Protein backbone atom coordinates (compact mmCIF):
# COMPACT_ATOMS: atom_id res chain seq x y z
CA UNK A 1 0.00 0.00 0.00
CA UNK A 2 1.26 3.42 -0.86
CA UNK A 3 2.06 5.41 2.27
CA UNK A 4 0.58 8.51 0.65
CA UNK A 5 -2.91 7.06 1.10
CA UNK A 6 -2.68 7.49 4.84
CA UNK A 7 -1.27 11.02 4.62
CA UNK A 8 -4.26 12.06 2.56
CA UNK A 9 -6.67 10.81 5.20
CA UNK A 10 -6.06 12.44 8.53
CA UNK A 11 -9.05 11.05 10.31
CA UNK A 12 -8.35 8.43 12.97
CA UNK A 13 -10.77 5.54 13.10
CA UNK A 14 -11.88 5.49 9.48
CA UNK A 15 -8.29 5.75 8.27
CA UNK A 16 -7.47 2.64 10.30
CA UNK A 17 -10.40 0.73 8.80
CA UNK A 18 -9.38 1.80 5.32
CA UNK A 19 -5.84 0.59 5.96
CA UNK A 20 -7.02 -2.82 7.22
CA UNK A 21 -9.13 -3.35 4.12
CA UNK A 22 -6.36 -2.20 1.82
CA UNK A 23 -3.85 -4.58 3.35
CA UNK A 24 -6.07 -7.43 2.20
CA UNK A 25 -7.46 -6.08 -1.06
CA UNK A 26 -4.12 -4.80 -2.30
CA UNK A 27 -2.29 -7.90 -1.07
CA UNK A 28 -0.06 -8.80 -3.99
CA UNK A 29 0.59 -5.28 -5.17
CA UNK A 30 1.19 -3.39 -1.94
CA UNK A 31 4.48 -2.00 -0.74
CA UNK A 32 6.43 -4.36 1.48
CA UNK A 33 9.92 -4.54 2.89
CA UNK A 34 11.35 -6.04 -0.28
CA UNK A 35 10.43 -2.82 -2.09
CA UNK A 36 11.97 -0.21 0.18
CA UNK A 37 13.73 2.60 -1.68
CA UNK A 38 16.78 4.60 -0.66
CA UNK A 39 15.84 7.74 1.26
CA UNK A 40 16.55 10.17 -1.57
CA UNK A 41 14.10 8.81 -4.10
CA UNK A 42 10.48 7.68 -3.79
CA UNK A 43 8.45 5.71 -6.33
CA UNK A 44 11.51 4.82 -8.38
CA UNK A 45 11.10 4.62 -12.13
CA UNK A 46 12.60 2.02 -14.42
CA UNK A 47 14.52 2.24 -17.66
CA UNK A 48 12.77 3.67 -20.71
CA UNK A 49 15.08 2.34 -23.36
CA UNK A 50 18.70 2.06 -24.17
CA UNK A 51 20.64 3.15 -21.08
CA UNK A 52 21.00 0.95 -18.01
CA UNK A 53 22.19 1.98 -14.52
CA UNK A 54 25.36 0.25 -13.37
CA UNK A 55 27.54 0.36 -10.26
CA UNK A 56 31.33 0.04 -10.42
CA UNK A 57 33.57 -1.61 -7.84
CA UNK A 58 34.11 1.75 -6.11
CA UNK A 59 30.39 2.07 -5.39
CA UNK A 60 29.82 4.79 -7.99
CA UNK A 61 26.99 4.69 -10.51
CA UNK A 62 26.67 5.55 -14.18
CA UNK A 63 24.98 4.16 -17.30
CA UNK A 64 25.78 1.48 -19.88
CA UNK A 65 24.18 0.85 -23.23
CA UNK A 66 22.82 -2.62 -23.92
CA UNK A 67 26.10 -3.57 -25.52
CA UNK A 68 27.85 -3.04 -22.19
CA UNK A 69 29.57 0.22 -23.19
CA UNK A 70 29.83 2.99 -20.60
CA UNK A 71 27.88 6.00 -21.88
CA UNK A 72 27.63 8.10 -18.72
CA UNK A 73 30.68 7.64 -16.45
CA UNK A 74 30.29 6.09 -12.99
CA UNK A 75 30.62 9.23 -10.88
CA UNK A 76 27.32 9.39 -9.02
CA UNK A 77 26.53 8.07 -5.55
CA UNK A 78 23.26 6.59 -6.80
CA UNK A 79 21.20 6.72 -9.99
CA UNK A 80 17.81 5.53 -11.17
CA UNK A 81 16.80 4.47 -14.67
CA UNK A 82 15.70 6.92 -17.31
CA UNK A 83 12.04 7.87 -17.44
CA UNK A 84 10.81 10.12 -20.25
CA UNK A 85 14.37 10.94 -21.21
CA UNK A 86 15.64 11.98 -17.78
CA UNK A 87 17.22 10.06 -14.91
CA UNK A 88 17.43 10.89 -11.20
CA UNK A 89 21.00 11.03 -9.92
CA UNK A 90 22.58 11.69 -6.52
CA UNK A 91 25.92 13.46 -6.27
CA UNK A 92 27.45 14.20 -2.87
CA UNK A 93 24.57 15.60 -0.82
CA UNK A 94 21.92 16.34 -3.43
CA UNK A 95 19.63 14.93 -6.11
CA UNK A 96 19.04 16.16 -9.64
CA UNK A 97 18.41 14.92 -13.19
CA UNK A 98 20.60 14.12 -16.20
CA UNK A 99 19.64 13.58 -19.83
CA UNK A 100 20.91 10.73 -22.00
CA UNK A 101 23.96 12.69 -23.06
CA UNK A 102 24.98 12.93 -19.42
CA UNK A 103 24.14 16.64 -19.19
CA UNK A 104 22.93 17.66 -15.73
CA UNK A 105 19.69 19.44 -16.68
CA UNK A 106 18.58 19.81 -13.06
CA UNK A 107 21.41 20.51 -10.58
CA UNK A 108 21.96 18.04 -7.74
CA UNK A 109 20.64 20.36 -5.05
CA UNK A 110 17.46 18.71 -3.77
CA UNK A 111 17.03 16.50 -0.70
CA UNK A 112 14.59 14.29 -2.58
CA UNK A 113 13.18 14.01 -6.09
CA UNK A 114 10.47 12.00 -7.79
CA UNK A 115 9.79 10.94 -11.35
CA UNK A 116 8.13 13.34 -13.75
CA UNK A 117 4.36 13.09 -14.04
CA UNK A 118 2.53 15.10 -16.69
CA UNK A 119 5.76 17.02 -17.30
CA UNK A 120 6.48 17.97 -13.68
CA UNK A 121 8.43 16.40 -10.82
CA UNK A 122 8.00 16.75 -7.08
CA UNK A 123 11.14 17.91 -5.28
CA UNK A 124 11.97 18.48 -1.63
CA UNK A 125 14.42 21.01 -0.24
CA UNK A 126 14.83 22.01 3.39
CA UNK A 127 11.94 19.77 4.43
CA UNK A 128 9.43 21.40 2.08
CA UNK A 129 8.03 20.34 -1.29
CA UNK A 130 7.57 22.02 -4.64
CA UNK A 131 7.54 21.21 -8.36
CA UNK A 132 9.98 21.63 -11.23
CA UNK A 133 9.45 21.36 -14.97
CA UNK A 134 11.67 19.36 -17.31
CA UNK A 135 13.98 22.35 -17.72
CA UNK A 136 14.59 22.46 -13.97
CA UNK A 137 12.53 25.60 -13.34
CA UNK A 138 10.64 25.60 -10.04
CA UNK A 139 7.07 26.26 -11.11
CA UNK A 140 6.00 25.80 -7.48
CA UNK A 141 8.54 26.89 -4.85
CA UNK A 142 9.41 24.40 -2.12
CA UNK A 143 6.92 25.68 0.44
CA UNK A 144 4.49 22.81 1.09
CA UNK A 145 4.70 20.21 3.85
CA UNK A 146 3.82 17.50 1.33
CA UNK A 147 2.91 17.25 -2.33
CA UNK A 148 1.65 14.54 -4.68
CA UNK A 149 2.14 13.91 -8.39
CA UNK A 150 0.07 15.76 -10.98
CA UNK A 151 -3.06 13.92 -11.99
CA UNK A 152 -5.51 15.24 -14.56
CA UNK A 153 -3.63 18.57 -14.60
CA UNK A 154 -3.83 19.15 -10.83
CA UNK A 155 -1.53 18.25 -7.96
CA UNK A 156 -2.55 17.83 -4.34
CA UNK A 157 -0.54 19.76 -1.75
CA UNK A 158 -0.56 19.86 2.04
CA UNK A 159 0.03 22.63 4.57
CA UNK A 160 0.45 21.82 8.25
CA UNK A 161 1.54 18.77 10.21
CA UNK A 162 -0.49 15.63 10.89
CA UNK A 163 -2.57 17.36 13.57
CA UNK A 164 -3.36 20.52 11.59
CA UNK A 165 -3.03 19.38 7.98
CA UNK A 166 -5.14 20.91 5.25
CA UNK A 167 -5.12 19.83 1.61
CA UNK A 168 -5.57 21.84 -1.57
CA UNK A 169 -4.56 21.78 -5.24
CA UNK A 170 -2.15 23.59 -7.56
CA UNK A 171 -2.41 23.71 -11.35
CA UNK A 172 0.35 23.35 -13.92
CA UNK A 173 0.95 27.09 -13.90
CA UNK A 174 2.01 26.74 -10.27
CA UNK A 175 -1.09 28.50 -8.93
CA UNK A 176 -2.86 27.29 -5.80
CA UNK A 177 -6.26 27.33 -7.46
CA UNK A 178 -8.02 25.41 -4.69
CA UNK A 179 -6.85 26.62 -1.26
CA UNK A 180 -5.56 24.19 1.38
CA UNK A 181 -8.80 23.77 3.30
CA UNK A 182 -9.67 20.08 3.18
CA UNK A 183 -8.89 17.43 5.79
CA UNK A 184 -9.47 14.62 3.28
CA UNK A 185 -8.90 14.74 -0.48
CA UNK A 186 -8.21 12.44 -3.42
CA UNK A 187 -6.41 13.08 -6.70
CA UNK A 188 -8.28 14.63 -9.61
CA UNK A 189 -9.48 12.27 -12.32
CA UNK A 190 -12.07 12.82 -15.03
CA UNK A 191 -12.22 16.48 -14.00
CA UNK A 192 -13.32 15.95 -10.40
CA UNK A 193 -11.81 15.10 -7.02
CA UNK A 194 -13.32 13.61 -3.88
CA UNK A 195 -12.97 15.87 -0.81
CA UNK A 196 -14.57 16.33 2.58
CA UNK A 197 -17.42 18.81 2.37
CA UNK A 198 -18.35 20.75 5.49
CA UNK A 199 -17.48 19.44 8.93
CA UNK A 200 -15.27 16.35 8.61
CA UNK A 201 -17.12 14.48 11.35
CA UNK A 202 -20.62 15.27 10.05
CA UNK A 203 -22.73 12.61 8.37
CA UNK A 204 -22.20 12.39 4.62
CA UNK A 205 -18.93 14.31 4.74
CA UNK A 206 -17.42 13.37 1.33
CA UNK A 207 -18.37 14.97 -1.95
CA UNK A 208 -16.82 15.85 -5.31
CA UNK A 209 -15.46 19.17 -6.57
CA UNK A 210 -14.50 20.35 -10.05
CA UNK A 211 -11.26 22.14 -10.96
CA UNK A 212 -12.73 25.49 -9.88
CA UNK A 213 -13.48 24.14 -6.41
CA UNK A 214 -17.23 23.99 -7.00
CA UNK A 215 -19.30 20.99 -5.92
CA UNK A 216 -19.78 18.68 -8.90
CA UNK A 217 -22.62 16.60 -7.38
CA UNK A 218 -25.07 17.28 -4.59
CA UNK A 219 -24.70 13.80 -3.11
CA UNK A 220 -22.66 13.25 0.08
CA UNK A 221 -20.99 10.04 1.23
CA UNK A 222 -19.22 8.58 4.24
CA UNK A 223 -16.16 8.13 2.04
CA UNK A 224 -15.23 8.19 -1.64
CA UNK A 225 -12.35 7.33 -3.95
CA UNK A 226 -11.41 8.98 -7.22
CA UNK A 227 -12.91 8.13 -10.61
CA UNK A 228 -11.38 5.31 -12.62
CA UNK A 229 -12.72 4.04 -15.94
CA UNK A 230 -15.82 6.21 -15.49
CA UNK A 231 -16.77 5.00 -11.99
CA UNK A 232 -15.96 6.15 -8.46
CA UNK A 233 -16.20 3.99 -5.35
CA UNK A 234 -18.31 5.51 -2.56
CA UNK A 235 -19.22 4.39 0.95
CA UNK A 236 -22.65 4.90 2.48
CA UNK A 237 -23.95 3.50 5.77
CA UNK A 238 -20.79 1.44 6.15
CA UNK A 239 -20.98 -0.24 2.72
CA UNK A 240 -19.27 0.47 -0.60
CA UNK A 241 -20.68 0.80 -4.12
CA UNK A 242 -20.07 2.89 -7.25
CA UNK A 243 -21.36 6.07 -8.90
CA UNK A 244 -21.01 7.17 -12.53
CA UNK A 245 -19.88 10.57 -13.84
CA UNK A 246 -23.35 12.06 -13.32
CA UNK A 247 -23.22 11.16 -9.64
CA UNK A 248 -25.81 8.40 -10.02
CA UNK A 249 -25.34 5.31 -7.84
CA UNK A 250 -25.08 2.60 -10.48
CA UNK A 251 -23.77 -0.25 -8.29
CA UNK A 252 -25.49 -0.34 -4.92
CA UNK A 253 -23.53 0.14 -1.70
CA UNK A 254 -23.45 -3.40 -0.36
CA UNK A 255 -19.79 -4.41 -0.10
CA UNK A 256 -17.50 -4.22 2.92
CA UNK A 257 -14.62 -2.96 0.77
CA UNK A 258 -13.91 -2.33 -2.91
CA UNK A 259 -11.12 -1.18 -5.19
CA UNK A 260 -11.35 1.17 -8.14
CA UNK A 261 -12.06 -0.36 -11.54
CA UNK A 262 -9.02 -1.63 -13.43
CA UNK A 263 -9.15 -3.35 -16.80
CA UNK A 264 -12.95 -3.40 -16.54
CA UNK A 265 -13.05 -5.21 -13.19
CA UNK A 266 -13.22 -4.14 -9.53
CA UNK A 267 -12.32 -6.15 -6.44
CA UNK A 268 -15.02 -6.46 -3.81
CA UNK A 269 -15.19 -7.87 -0.28
CA UNK A 270 -18.11 -9.70 1.28
CA UNK A 271 -18.05 -10.24 5.04
CA UNK A 272 -15.79 -8.74 7.67
CA UNK A 273 -12.54 -6.91 6.98
CA UNK A 274 -10.57 -9.65 8.71
CA UNK A 275 -12.55 -12.77 7.82
CA UNK A 276 -14.39 -11.88 4.61
CA UNK A 277 -13.78 -13.16 1.08
CA UNK A 278 -12.81 -11.29 -2.09
CA UNK A 279 -14.03 -11.56 -5.66
CA UNK A 280 -14.62 -9.36 -8.73
CA UNK A 281 -17.49 -7.48 -10.34
CA UNK A 282 -17.82 -5.99 -13.83
CA UNK A 283 -19.14 -2.53 -14.68
CA UNK A 284 -22.71 -3.81 -14.69
CA UNK A 285 -22.32 -4.92 -11.10
CA UNK A 286 -22.29 -8.61 -11.98
CA UNK A 287 -20.18 -10.77 -9.66
CA UNK A 288 -18.22 -12.44 -12.44
CA UNK A 289 -15.71 -14.10 -10.09
CA UNK A 290 -17.22 -15.31 -6.78
CA UNK A 291 -16.02 -13.93 -3.46
CA UNK A 292 -13.90 -16.88 -2.34
CA UNK A 293 -10.34 -15.55 -2.02
CA UNK A 294 -8.47 -14.44 1.09
CA UNK A 295 -6.97 -11.50 -0.83
CA UNK A 296 -6.51 -10.40 -4.43
CA UNK A 297 -5.00 -7.75 -6.70
CA UNK A 298 -6.04 -5.72 -9.74
CA UNK A 299 -6.17 -7.18 -13.22
CA UNK A 300 -3.05 -6.37 -15.23
CA UNK A 301 -2.27 -7.73 -18.69
CA UNK A 302 -5.41 -9.89 -18.39
CA UNK A 303 -4.46 -11.59 -15.10
CA UNK A 304 -4.96 -10.88 -11.40
CA UNK A 305 -3.14 -12.29 -8.40
CA UNK A 306 -5.17 -14.12 -5.76
CA UNK A 307 -4.34 -15.65 -2.39
CA UNK A 308 -5.58 -18.87 -0.84
CA UNK A 309 -4.90 -20.52 2.51
CA UNK A 310 -4.87 -19.09 6.03
CA UNK A 311 -2.25 -16.73 7.47
CA UNK A 312 -0.03 -19.69 8.39
CA UNK A 313 -0.06 -21.20 4.91
CA UNK A 314 -0.98 -18.47 2.45
CA UNK A 315 -0.02 -18.90 -1.20
CA UNK A 316 -0.41 -16.68 -4.26
CA UNK A 317 -1.27 -17.44 -7.87
CA UNK A 318 -3.10 -15.86 -10.84
CA UNK A 319 -6.54 -16.08 -12.42
CA UNK A 320 -7.91 -14.82 -15.74
CA UNK A 321 -11.09 -12.79 -16.22
CA UNK A 322 -13.17 -15.94 -16.35
CA UNK A 323 -11.88 -16.97 -12.94
CA UNK A 324 -9.71 -19.77 -14.28
CA UNK A 325 -6.58 -20.41 -12.22
CA UNK A 326 -3.90 -20.03 -14.90
CA UNK A 327 -0.99 -20.06 -12.44
CA UNK A 328 -1.52 -22.23 -9.34
CA UNK A 329 -1.39 -20.65 -5.89
CA UNK A 330 2.08 -21.83 -4.84
CA UNK A 331 4.17 -18.69 -4.37
CA UNK A 332 4.78 -16.84 -1.10
CA UNK A 333 4.70 -13.43 -2.78
CA UNK A 334 3.79 -12.16 -6.26
CA UNK A 335 3.38 -8.86 -8.07
CA UNK A 336 1.16 -7.85 -10.99
CA UNK A 337 2.33 -8.80 -14.48
CA UNK A 338 4.46 -6.25 -16.29
CA UNK A 339 6.29 -6.80 -19.60
CA UNK A 340 4.77 -10.28 -19.60
CA UNK A 341 6.47 -11.31 -16.35
CA UNK A 342 5.48 -11.39 -12.68
CA UNK A 343 7.86 -10.99 -9.78
CA UNK A 344 7.51 -14.00 -7.44
CA UNK A 345 9.12 -15.17 -4.23
CA UNK A 346 9.75 -18.69 -3.02
CA UNK A 347 10.24 -18.85 0.74
CA UNK A 348 9.78 -16.44 3.63
CA UNK A 349 10.41 -12.70 3.58
CA UNK A 350 13.66 -13.15 5.51
CA UNK A 351 15.14 -16.14 3.70
CA UNK A 352 13.20 -16.42 0.43
CA UNK A 353 14.52 -15.64 -3.05
CA UNK A 354 12.95 -13.72 -5.95
CA UNK A 355 12.56 -14.55 -9.61
CA UNK A 356 10.18 -13.97 -12.52
CA UNK A 357 7.50 -16.19 -14.04
CA UNK A 358 5.70 -15.79 -17.38
CA UNK A 359 1.99 -16.24 -18.10
CA UNK A 360 2.36 -19.94 -18.84
CA UNK A 361 3.88 -20.50 -15.42
CA UNK A 362 7.44 -20.94 -16.67
CA UNK A 363 10.09 -19.58 -14.31
CA UNK A 364 11.97 -17.44 -16.84
CA UNK A 365 14.31 -15.96 -14.23
CA UNK A 366 15.12 -18.42 -11.41
CA UNK A 367 14.33 -17.48 -7.81
CA UNK A 368 17.88 -16.59 -6.79
CA UNK A 369 17.79 -12.90 -5.87
CA UNK A 370 17.67 -11.40 -2.37
CA UNK A 371 15.87 -8.33 -3.72
CA UNK A 372 13.90 -7.54 -6.87
CA UNK A 373 11.53 -4.99 -8.38
CA UNK A 374 8.97 -5.67 -11.15
CA UNK A 375 9.87 -5.12 -14.80
CA UNK A 376 9.13 -1.86 -16.54
CA UNK A 377 10.20 -0.94 -20.05
CA UNK A 378 12.09 -4.19 -20.31
CA UNK A 379 14.32 -3.91 -17.23
CA UNK A 380 14.07 -4.90 -13.55
CA UNK A 381 16.32 -4.00 -10.63
CA UNK A 382 17.58 -7.00 -8.64
CA UNK A 383 20.12 -7.58 -5.91
CA UNK A 384 22.25 -10.25 -4.31
CA UNK A 385 23.87 -9.40 -1.02
CA UNK A 386 24.84 -5.72 -1.07
CA UNK A 387 25.08 -5.54 -4.89
CA UNK A 388 22.27 -4.01 -6.95
CA UNK A 389 22.05 -4.24 -10.73
CA UNK A 390 19.58 -4.64 -13.61
CA UNK A 391 18.38 -7.55 -15.73
CA UNK A 392 16.40 -7.73 -18.97
CA UNK A 393 13.39 -9.98 -19.66
CA UNK A 394 15.66 -12.88 -20.65
CA UNK A 395 17.46 -12.69 -17.29
CA UNK A 396 20.66 -11.14 -18.71
CA UNK A 397 22.51 -9.27 -15.97
CA UNK A 398 24.09 -5.88 -16.59
CA UNK A 399 27.12 -5.62 -14.31
CA UNK A 400 30.18 -3.45 -14.87
CA UNK A 401 33.36 -5.52 -14.92
Provide a compact summary of the structure.
The chain is mainly beta. The chain is 4% helix and 48% strand.
Beta-strand percentage?
A: over 45%
Helix content: under 10%
Number of helices, counting only DSSP H or I runs of 4 residues or more: 2
Q: Main β-sheet, in a few words?
A: 4 strands, antiparallel
Q: What is the 3D shape?
A: flat
Distance between the termini: 37 Å
**Overall SS class:** mainly beta
Number of strands: 37
> What is Rg?
22 Å
Mean pLDDT over all positions: 86
The low-confidence runs, each spanning 5 or more residues with pLDDT under 50, are 1-27, 29-47
Order of strands side by side in the largest beta sheet? 4-5-6-7
What does this molecule look like?
This protein is mainly beta and 401 residues long. The chain has a domain at 121-182. It is 4% helix and 48% strand. It has a 4-stranded antiparallel β-sheet, with no helix packed on it. It has a 4-stranded antiparallel β-sheet with strand order 8-9-10-11, with no helix packed on it. Strands 12-13-14-15 form a 4-stranded antiparallel β-sheet, with no helix packed on it. The chain starts with a helix and ends with a strand. 39% of the residues are buried.
Amino acid sequence: MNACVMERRYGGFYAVLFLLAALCIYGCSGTSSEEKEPAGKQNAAYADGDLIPVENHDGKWGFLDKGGNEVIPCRYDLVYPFSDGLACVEYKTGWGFVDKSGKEVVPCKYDQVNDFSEGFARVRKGGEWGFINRGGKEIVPCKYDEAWDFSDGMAMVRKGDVNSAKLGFVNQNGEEVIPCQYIVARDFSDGVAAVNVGNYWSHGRMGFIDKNGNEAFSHRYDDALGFSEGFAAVRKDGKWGFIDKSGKEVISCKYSAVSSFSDGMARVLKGGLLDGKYGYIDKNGNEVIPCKYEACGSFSEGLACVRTGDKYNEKWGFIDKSGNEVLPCKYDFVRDFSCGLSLVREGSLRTGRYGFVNKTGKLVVPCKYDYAKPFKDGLARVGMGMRLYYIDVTGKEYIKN
